[in-house]
Amino acid sequence: MKIIIDDKIPYIKGALEPFAEVVYLPGNKTTPEMVTDADALITRTRTICDENLLKGSTVKFIASATIGFDHIDTEYCKKAGIKWINSPGCNAESVNQYIASALFSFAMKKRENLENKTIGIVGVGNVGSKVARFCETIGMKVLLNDPPRERAEGSEKFISLQKIKKEADIISFHVPLNYSGEDKTFHMVDELFLQELQNKPLIINSCRGEVFNSEAVYNAIEKNDISGLILDCWENEPNINLNLLNICDYGTPHIAGYSKDGKANGTRMSIQAISSFFNLGINDWEPTGIEHPENSIIEIDGNQRRDYSIIAEAILSTYDIEMDDDNLRETPHLFEKLRGDYPVRREFDSYTIKAINIEKSTLDKLEKLGFNIENK
């Protein structure tokens, strides 16, 4: 048995060696010759799993350690009898942390308050649901749009995209990339979409670059049709639009989901799927050696402070989007390296708030966001 593994997938070495010949290869350089005699692949989004790569191979199973799966030609895999899985929700909390930091950082830069702002969340799956919960916790009004879920569950908690365009001060996108069909999302944000916005909102893309039409978004900023732009995902990565980078409020190299926790979850889900498919007997495998933050204790004195300010300090103590923005602006040609060598980032539940003079109601909110609380 032979398994090809993307060499950037963390915490995986040693897991499958007792059961198979394991070969680690750069995901963006994997060739058909390399996978000809492989039984399985474990990939990230940089490995394009289509007929060009897989035709004539012995591959039976593909596990992607990522939420997205648009790098997998699912129709070809179906015809070729190749089973595939992705890792839904593996980095949802990481993206939530990214959005939380982005919102607080943007609000502070603009000297605005997020409380009572209206956010439209387009795509309410694993990620969008967590973002909605965070926004509700800090006092924002949340509008949810998710046509597939609305068709399945009814219209009670979902609204139209037109209503979001009319009412939202912020719109954050968490949709898969669909190039066609009823739920097409390719260039969802185009010239017409942007012209119909009523409140000149901040728009955020942390899902897939091709959901936004880059030229249309650039023009919308120039025409003042939107008040701000935060981009983690770009068209034509890693060859991103530098004009768009220069004009956006925050630009990062597709790392919203790059917490160590999210990566470990993707690895765990992939290994367990491989084990189940090939009956390896390690269906409960868990990754080890996940790096800790430099300082997991956040001391906050809440004396004469509102909970909004305290929550902002807690979140920004775990992740500062401005550092990633600075790095990309300084070295945009190193887009892939910035991703591949991304430093340790841990999610909220890796941190403990050492609370001084903080009301119980505020501590309850911090705990709801995932923080551990000392002196509650």
SSE topology sketch:
Elements: E1 2-6, E2 21-25, H1 32-35, E3 40-43, H2 51-54, E4 61-64, H3 74-80, E5 83-85, H4 92-110, E6 118-122, H5 126-137, E7 141-145, H6 147-153, H7 161-167, E8 170-173, H8 191-195, E9 202-205, H9 214-222, E10 228-231, H10 242-247, E11 250-251, H11 260-278, E12 297-301, H12 307-318, H13 321-330, H14 335-340, E13 352-356, H15 360-369, E14 372-374
Parallel strand pairs: 1-2, 1-3, 3-4, 4-5, 6-7, 6-8, 8-9, 9-10, 10-11, 12-13, 13-14
Describe the structure.
The chain has about 375 residues and is α/β, with parallel strands linked by helices. It folds into three domains: about 1-85 and about 260-280, 3-Layer(aba) Sandwich (Rossmann fold); about 90-250, NAD(P)-binding Rossmann-like Domain (Rossmann fold), CATH 3.40.50; about 295-375, 2-Layer Sandwich (Ribosomal Protein S8, Chain: A, domain 1). It is built from 15 helices and 14 strands. It has helices at about 30-35, 50-55, 75-80, 90-110, 125-135, 145-155, 160-165, 190-195, 215-220, 240-245, 260-280, 305-320, 320-330, 335-340, 360-370, and strands spanning about 1-5, 20-25, 40-45, 60-65, 85, 120, 140-145, 170-175, 200-205, 230, 250, 295-300, 350-355, 370-375. The protein has a six-stranded parallel sheet, sandwiched between helices. Strand 13, helix 15 (about 360-370) and strand 14 (about 370-375) form a beta-alpha-beta unit. Helix 4 crosses helix 5 (about 125-135), helix 4 packs across helix 12 and helix 12 (about 305-320) runs parallel beside helix 15 (about 360-370). The longest helix is centred in the N-terminal third of the chain and has 19 residues, at about 90-110. It is globular, with a radius of gyration of 21 Å. The mean pLDDT is about 95.
